[in-house]
Amino acid sequence: MLALFAHACLYLLLTAAEASWVVAVAVRVWRRREAGMTTAMRASVHKPTLAVLLAAQVGYVILRRVGLAKLNRRVSEYTWQRGRA
Question: Rounded to whole angstroms, how far apart are CA atoms 7 and 10?
Answer without folding.
Answer: 5
